[in-house]
Amino acid sequence: MYALSIAMVAWLIAQISKVLTSYLKKRKFDLYALVAPGGMPSSHTSFVVALAMRIGIIDGFGSTTFAMAAAFALIVMYDAAGVRRAAGLQAQKINLLIDEFYLTHQVNEKRLREILGHTPLEVFGGIVLGGLIGLFWNLW
Fold first, then answer.
1. From 74, 109, 121, 129, which residue has the greatest number of CB atoms within 10 Å?
2. pLDDT value for 113
């Protein structure tokens, strides 16, 4: 349970950080960034990396539990930067088609959410944040 608690702290810090990075990017304070998908750093990545790091420290980096946690983290990171990012880009294109169609015909279509995944830099930010929290938790 201890490793899970630390992973949850990493997730919470990442979510709060999204409000700050969103403000720096847009110069607008947006509390929605606390719950919105996407953004810097990836909270999913921070969560799984902190979890894997703590499991490695507690059970050993050669343990089966660490191997499972690391594999789980890699899958989450791949999904965040790959599959979910591609779905977000697809939503952008569909929204562009809707906008173009709207110029010539009247359409009342709900726009799709475009930010579903993370850029590789956002995933890397999650790796760094989660790794540092998992590694140095005992020092705080």
1. 129
2. 61
